[in-house]
Amino acid sequence: MQERITNKELRVRGYHLDQFGHVNNIRYAEFLEEARCDFFDQFPGFFTRVQDTGHFLPLTEIHIFYRKAAVLDDVLDIRTRFSEVGETSGTIHQTITLKGTDRVILEADVTFMAVDLKTGRRTSIEGALRAVITSVIDECTG
Amino acid sequence: MQERITNKELRVRGYHLDQFGHVNNIRYAEFLEEARCDFFDQFPGFFTRVQDTGHFLPLTEIHIFYRKAAVLDDVLDIRTRFSEVGETSGTIHQTITLKGTDRVILEADVTFMAVDLKTGRRTSIEGALRAVITSVIDECTG
Amino acid sequence: MQERITNKELRVRGYHLDQFGHVNNIRYAEFLEEARCDFFDQFPGFFTRVQDTGHFLPLTEIHIFYRKAAVLDDVLDIRTRFSEVGETSGTIHQTITLKGTDRVILEADVTFMAVDLKTGRRTSIEGALRAVITSVIDECTG
Amino acid sequence: MQERITNKELRVRGYHLDQFGHVNNIRYAEFLEEARCDFFDQFPGFFTRVQDTGHFLPLTEIHIFYRKAAVLDDVLDIRTRFSEVGETSGTIHQTITLKGTDRVILEADVTFMAVDLKTGRRTSIEGALRAVITSVIDECTG
């Protein structure tokens, strides 16, 4: 799977900072959520198609690795991609860099699992559900 | 109508600040909302009783007057009270002071109107609806 | 003074909502702040030039008028302009509409005052300070 | 090391929710940050004492495990404790439960490292720095 650069750009504002003049960790959680929304905007109907297969994909983990601090007026570039689709779960990888540079501000792994809408239980990613998810990946790498 | 001091206290954190080291205006909007939630927690069933009269009370205006800046580790005291109930609307007044002092950080007027659930239109605050609202005021001043 | 449409667009996300499925009032305060940042981005050095005149321009009031509710996936268009520059204060007017329509979601007046950096006191908007502020207005309407 | 229950309680509000009526993941990041602030409030001067040893303790990772959804009016109990102090890093463990129950809403591991203020480089947690950190742990378990 190749990386799809979503080109989500975001400028650091005064209200993103903490007492050290650095972007506060809470705001990064929001930037990442916004970038994931933006990512899925590119695949209209994705969540409806998932639901039509009788499943939903709740988040189970967010793991953020802080690399460098971002400061006022920095322009951040947030990249989002599916990095792994396993038996019953998958992972979205996100990277925030300082725009126009290789400076990595943070990386994050966001894990979801497949849940059967009828039973409410964790289930396998196979058949129609796998097809919906891999279609996004194919479109990203096509 | 007398003021009911809700004793909502809140300590200023690093993530509340902006580039000037002051609490950012967005955060005040949140502090005020939280204090209003806290205020109505003291009158369980208030919104259900309003709904039972066939009405709801959407916010129509928030007017915030910034007086002084608050900084890291300040402990803020937020007071909330009904300040006026008119023909078709009412006002909640909120004051944030530095705890243990007379230093006013900000004041706010939050206005709601009465809407008829059936018609979706602005309506008079009278009869059962007025009784529900004034019961809160009586309890505050009793 | 004519209106400058800043074209700040923003899509309503799940995390902007409250229990009624409407954008919560706190989030509007943030949308407006972001749009003001965006507005001033168009005039690089504005705040430095204000400071060079020996002043700063703290916010003194925010007055928001809620007109209609916005819901998930709405695309909002936020317009920001100087609406008035008086003796010692000025006002920025902001309007949020549903993109591509005349539907007004909210309007806001954001008031600032001029403060002398040396005395810390409210002062007149005149001379070099007035020139800096009106240059922005001229650029908006030019 | 035993767990110190910080008794940070928090009630879920409408503005914490997303389109599913669940607390949004961004808000959990904020609840955890607030609870960590609250935890360190119990050890006044902790960060000053760390600084006096010539170090600071930046966050390097936040890893959140979502277990169950929280909904409107839930009262959450957030527990915070040092769970590990290693060679050059340490971990704070946080658990959010539904108050008065064993229902775990989420767990989080928050990792910090020791950085030398002079060199800006990762360094060992030993000597005076270790003493400051373990004094907190001793006070928690004493």
Describe this structure in words.
Four copies of one chain form a homotetramer. With 142 residues, the first copy, chain A, is α+β, with helices and mostly antiparallel strands. Chain A has one domain (8-141): Thiol Ester Dehydrase, Chain A. In chain A, 27% of the residues lie in helices and 33% in strands. Chain A has a five-stranded antiparallel β-sheet with strand order 1-4-5-6-3. The longest helix of chain A is centred in the N-terminal third of the chain and has 17 residues, at 25-41. Chain A is elongated, with a radius of gyration of 16 Å. The N and C termini of chain A lie close together (10 Å). The interface between A and D is medium-sized, with 15 and 15 residues.
